[in-house]
Design brief:
Elements (H helix, E strand, L loop, with lengths): L5 E6 L5 E10 L8 E8 L8 E9 L9
Antiparallel strand pairs: 1-2, 2-3, 3-4
Length: 68
């Protein structure tokens, strides 16, 4: 869903759980052509919030990646 984060819990072999968040929005709201996808993973047991991994990319309507 555009502009609404999607959360998933991922259980590791150790039994620990990580949270994954994916957010999709327009890269340029005026143009409304390419989508920016942001993915973030964190450990909910940590008292101080901090990403374990975070990445973003831009996807064009034809399925290609912008800047690749």
């Amino acid at each position: 869903m555009k502009d609404k984060p999607i959360h998933v819990e991922v259980m590791l072999d150790s039994g620990d759980i990580l949270i994954g968040e994916t957010m999709v929005s327009w890269d340029d709201r005026r143009e409304q052509r390419n989508l920016r996808v942001i993915v973030d993973v964190w450990d909910p047991r940590r008292r101080v919030s901090g990403s374990i991994a975070s990445e973003d990319f831009i996807r064009a309507p034809d399925g290609s990646f912008i800047g690749e």
